[in-house]
Design brief:
Blueprint: H1 17-26, H2 33-36, E1 48-53, H3 57-72, E2 77-82, H4 85-94, E3 99-103, H5 107-116, E4 120-137, H6 138-143, H7 157-160, E5 169-173, H8 182-188, E6 193-197, H9 201-213, E7 219-224, E8 234-237, E9 259-267, H10 268-273, H11 275-283, H12 288-299, H13 305-315, H14 317-324
Parallel strand pairs: 1-2, 1-3, 5-6, 5-7
Antiparallel strand pairs: 3-9, 4-7, 4-8, 4-9
Helix pairs in contact: 3-12, 3-13, 12-13
Length: 325
Amino acid sequence: MPETRPTTRRGAVAALAAATALAVLTGCGAADMTRQTSPYAAARGAKTVTLSVQSWVGAQANTAVAGYLLEHELGYRVDTVQVDEVPAWDALSQGRVDAILEDWGHPEQQKRYVEDKKTIVGGGDLGVTGHIGWFVPTYFAEQHPDVTDWKNLGKYTDQLRTPESRGKGQLLDGSPSYVTNDKALVKNLGLDLDVVFAGSEAAQITQIKQFAKERKPFLTYWYKPQWLFERVPMTEVKLPEYTQGCDADPGKVACAYPHTPLQKYLNARFAEEGGRAAAFLKKFHWTVEAQNEVALMIAEEKLTPQQAARKWVERHEDVWRPWVA
C-alpha cells in the first residue's frame, strides 16, 4: 500500500485471506496484462466498465462496491483486472482498463500520463487518507513505551530477531513488489534491522496474527486504513518527521512516510465518453470506516467481494444513492 508507497503495496498474491478473495473477484493471474485485459475496456459505446484492482483488501473493497453498483443500479457489465500499481497506469493510459480507484501517489506516472500525454485524468479523492509506517503490537508498546521512538529500536534487537533476519532484528514487509523506503531507512538511520518480505499482504497478515497469538514482539511495515488494526492493535513507531521532498532521492530517504489522500484516475477517453459510469466513478467517495467494513467481511468473514458489497449496499443506501443519481 510510495515512491513512498506500494507499487503494489500489497501487489503480490498468496493463497490466503485477501488473496483468496481476490481470486474470486478477478479470476485472473497477477499481472499478465495480455491475458487479463478486457476486450471491452474503453470500447466506444460498450456498456462495460473495466476496473483495475490491486491485491490488498481495501482496494478489493472499493472495486467490489463500485462494481456492484455499476451492475445492479446502472446496468453495466463490470470486468476487473488484477495488475500492480505502476503497470496499472500503463494499462489505464492505453485504455486496457477504464479506472483505478485507489492510487497511493505515483508522481512520475502522474506527470507522464496526466500532465504530458493527457491520456489519464484525475477522478477525484476516494475519501480515504493512506499512511504507511512502522508498527509494533500495542501490547509490546505498553510494556516498553520507548520502543515507539525509532532511536530506541536498537535496544530491542534481540527480541525482534527471527530465524529469517540474519542475526538482526526483523522488520517485516509485505511483497518485494511494493515500493517501500524501508531498506534505505534501515541503512540511513543506522539500525540493526533486516527487512524480511512476507511475500504478500495476506502472508504478512498471517505472520502478524501468529505473532500476536503468541504475544511475541514484532516490528512491521504496515498501513492505514487496514482492517487488521481491529483484530491486532498496533502502535506506530515515530520515524524522523516527514517534510516535503525528504523522500525525493530513494537512496537517501531518512524520514517518515507521508499521509496521502488516495486518488481515483480514469482513462481520458472513458472520462469523456463513459456516460453514467464515468460520472458514477467520479462521485464514488467513502470513508475509512466504510472501506474497512467491506474489507473485514472479505478478509475475516470470508464473504466473496460480491457478497460483501451487496451487504454493504443494503445497509447504506443513504451513502451510495447520490453516487448513482
